[in-house]
Q: What sequence folds into this?
């Protein structure tokens, strides 16, 4: 199945199979077909065909927020020990209520 680009007697262009060509059809080049049909302008103007930049599914992170605070080794040891022994920080912090 080979396709060719043709222009009929009225000046309209189309893409047909080789066996569908009529006697009054004139075979034209692909470049002329794109120009006369307006597809050339469409592809230049709208960038038809292909994906947009940044399109698609976004990655989901295991830990979306990560805070970095500079603390001394003594403070790190205190926090680690408190977590180990199940210390409840919410009972110790002061709340304005």
A:
């Amino acid at each position: 199945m080979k396709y060719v680009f043709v222009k009929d007697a009225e000046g309209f262009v189309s893409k047909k199979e080789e066996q569908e060509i009529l006697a009054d059809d004139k075979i034209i080049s692909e470049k002329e077909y794109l120009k006369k049909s307006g597809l050339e302008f469409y592809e230049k103007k709208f960038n038809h065909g292909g994906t947009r930049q940044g399109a698609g599914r976004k990655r989901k992170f295991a830990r979306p927020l990560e805070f970095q605070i500079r603390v001394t080794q003594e403070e790190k040891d205190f926090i680690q020990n408190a977590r180990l022994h199940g210390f409840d920080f919410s009972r110790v912090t002061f709340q304005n209520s």
User: Anything to note?
Assistant: The chain has a mean pLDDT of 80. The two ends are 81 Å apart (CA to CA). Residues 2 and 19 are 9 Å apart (CA to CA).
